[in-house]
Amino acid sequence: MTDNLTTLIEEVADATKYSTPDSKDTLIRILNSQEANEIALALESLPIEQRTEAWKNVAQDQRLDILVEMRSDPRESLLDTMPIAELDSLFNNIAASDLIELADTLPARLLDRAVRAMDTLQRSYFEDAQQYSEDVAGRWIDHDVLVLPNNAKVRDALRLLRRQLPDYVDCIFITNRAGHFSEAIRISRVFGSPDHVPLVDLAEEDFSVINAQEDAVAAATKVQRSGFSALPVVGENGKLLGRLDIGNACELTQEYYENQLMASAGMNEDEDLFSPIVKSTKNRAIWLGINLLTAFLASWFIGLFEATLQQVVALAVLMPVVASMGGIAGSQTLTLIIRGLALNQINAANRNALLKKELSVGALNGIVWAFVIAIVASIWFDSAMIGVVIALAILANILAAAAAGVCIPVILDKLKLDPALSGAVVLTTVTDIVGFVAFLGLGTLLLL
Amino acid sequence: MTDNLTTLIEEVADATKYSTPDSKDTLIRILNSQEANEIALALESLPIEQRTEAWKNVAQDQRLDILVEMRSDPRESLLDTMPIAELDSLFNNIAASDLIELADTLPARLLDRAVRAMDTLQRSYFEDAQQYSEDVAGRWIDHDVLVLPNNAKVRDALRLLRRQLPDYVDCIFITNRAGHFSEAIRISRVFGSPDHVPLVDLAEEDFSVINAQEDAVAAATKVQRSGFSALPVVGENGKLLGRLDIGNACELTQEYYENQLMASAGMNEDEDLFSPIVKSTKNRAIWLGINLLTAFLASWFIGLFEATLQQVVALAVLMPVVASMGGIAGSQTLTLIIRGLALNQINAANRNALLKKELSVGALNGIVWAFVIAIVASIWFDSAMIGVVIALAILANILAAAAAGVCIPVILDKLKLDPALSGAVVLTTVTDIVGFVAFLGLGTLLLL
């Protein structure tokens, strides 16, 4: 998905700029030759006018697949241009898995019409899925499972396989009469065995099962690491509801990482390249507001030392050096601990040892860089004492940063707040304040 | 992998703290009941002394699997405690896929011995893999492929499947007489067809193939999105070398995201919770040094306005507010663009429109927050003019941040530098400098 997509986007963009009959034909030809996934990415990358123009030329039979692949803002921009009649025909007999993807973006009335136009089985799948919030496995259940009863034999399995073998199926699931998941049989074991062997004799040992209320991303990771192409999803009573296959699992983890990245900058996960301007502004404003509060807080601490700053301007010039060194060193510790928390490797047993180790690394780096910065500062401002002041402040800030880098994510985690999202803001607020107070405080003590 | 692992680690930690015979038995029992993956995580989470103690109690037959799962620093710490005789027996007849994981950590002499003790086929796999750098697909080739010649029929496929069906296999690959990849046949299609049908009649259309020199992570994503459980990997001449299966693909993308996260904070991807202190210090020092240079650069610009700062202390107190608002706003744009670049959605066709859109959002947020900050600043320092100065500086900085957030990653990308790694440093340097210069410059013009 590299140069092909770049070329595709450029060709679509060129074709939509100049509305000649020739370029229209080019556009149609280009679009019809690509996968829904690629067309979705290409459409998302176009400014709204060109996107709408390109959309007119997308074949009807591809439209639903493309809409399912798109992010919500660009999708909405296209749905808004489509007449009701077309939407009705698009959503007629829609599959549950597709509607689940679209449900959050569709206006309520359209969603209702779509649900009523579904066939009975798909509607039941859809309504079952909607009982679960989108962050648990139950929302993402796939129904392509091969199931046989307890007393089935190898010949029954072979007959079933001759009729159907969906994607990502490497096991047949056995259920009891109440529909509860009982065993999993590898298809590879079915082949090697005589027809009369009971399937339960070939059952896997210690086969993992996913609970519908399990966190979706944790469940996805379980599937990816299991060595199997799918794991069964069961309800609270053990009833087999369906499966989570590795294809869906990969999509879930991929989206998770993207969302984490966006959220760490205070961006809404749905924000897209050409999301509406006012909407983008509002989404981003919240994060800017939070950071403004922390910035004013730090400024308030600086304000306590106005008198000192008035007399020793060098302190105002060098302040950012102290703050940023603490921030960077703290972020390093923070990142390491966040990774450890995500892997569940941090707990009461090793926290103190971790803190000690991070303080040691902080002390070493603190001493080295305090020395370097002291030399530069004392030469720059022709004052050995300024060198001493900044050296002590740097050392104090880097040590505080190490401690904060360990404690902050651990505390956030205990409060059930995701440290990957809020950890950096809290950390840099702490390192800024400690840096400014240490530097200006020592400056007041030693330079006036 | 949640409470189980936490409990495991706590139990192991407790058991290693008190070296009674009872706790030793507990430890052995605990360790023997877990997966290699979980034991590896548990060992990584222990301080070195306790880790070494726990290792003594790990069953011999699990040791290799656990070492393969561990990161390099903790792995090295354990290898160092093992006598040569034990290492020799551990690496005797090792599989190529395991040695590939370990190769970077083993001292050269040990690696040589291991290679010489391998069986011929595994050694050829290992040596083939080593021809490729670790960031291309060729290094991660799996050899569990089902291959048949051009003229094979359904009955030949069924016979092959009865003999073997490895994990993650959903297709049989067809090669010509020169060993070049030719077609892929879904196993599900084999079942539904009569014995005499030539396999090539059932071939998939437009089947994706991976080139051995392709970027490993891009190849992994290709596999995950293909709908298949594995894709074939071919050499330059089209020769079928093996496959990349979805299990490996998930590991590759998982590691990629973890490494990106670490690298964005200037951390070496191999750094672990209890990596040796001096090693950690050195690894982190480089990033700290780079950031120090950018901090001094920003300070130099502040230094140009020493006279102004001496007269208007309020400027020193409010400086960080201007700098941080630009930094946060710029990071939001940067994150959006970086995601777009990763998906190949950014190019000459939409760059200008993107820049315009980001500048618009920047202008809106800039005006709103400039206003808010101006009110607070003018009340705090009892001066309407300070409010005007900071308002203009905030607006200028947020606009500059929007432009930088678009241009910097695009330029870095053109220079083949990963914007996810270096983008933030460059951006915050720019927004700091612009913020300080705008604020102090306007202050000089309007407040003196």
Question: Describe it for me?
Answer:
Chain A has three domains: 2-130, Alpha Horseshoe (MgtE N-terminal fold), CATH 1.25.60.10; 147-263, CBS-domain (Roll); 277-447, Orthogonal Bundle (Tetracycline Repressor, domain 2), CATH 1.10.357. The first copy, chain A, is 66% helix and 6% strand. Chain A has 20 helices and six strands. A three-stranded mixed β-sheet of chain A has the order 1-2-3. A three-stranded mixed β-sheet of chain A has the order 4-5-6. The mean pLDDT of chain A is 91. Chains A, B: The chain crosses the membrane at residues 285-305, 311-338, 359-380, 386-412, 424-447. Chains A, B: This is Magnesium transporter. Chains A, B: Belongs to the SLC41A transporter family.
SSE blueprint:
Two copies of one chain form a homodimer.
Chain A: H1 3-17, H2 21-32, H3 36-44, H4 48-55, H5 60-69, H6 72-79, H7 84-91, H8 96-102, H9 108-116, H10 120-130, E1 147-149, H11 154-163, E2 171-175, E3 181-186, H12 187-192, E4 210-211, H13 216-226, E5 230-234, E6 240-245, H14 246-264, H15 277-303, H16 306-311, H17 313-342, H18 351-380, H19 384-414, H20 419-447
Parallel strand pairs in A: 1-2, 4-5
Antiparallel strand pairs in A: 2-3, 5-6
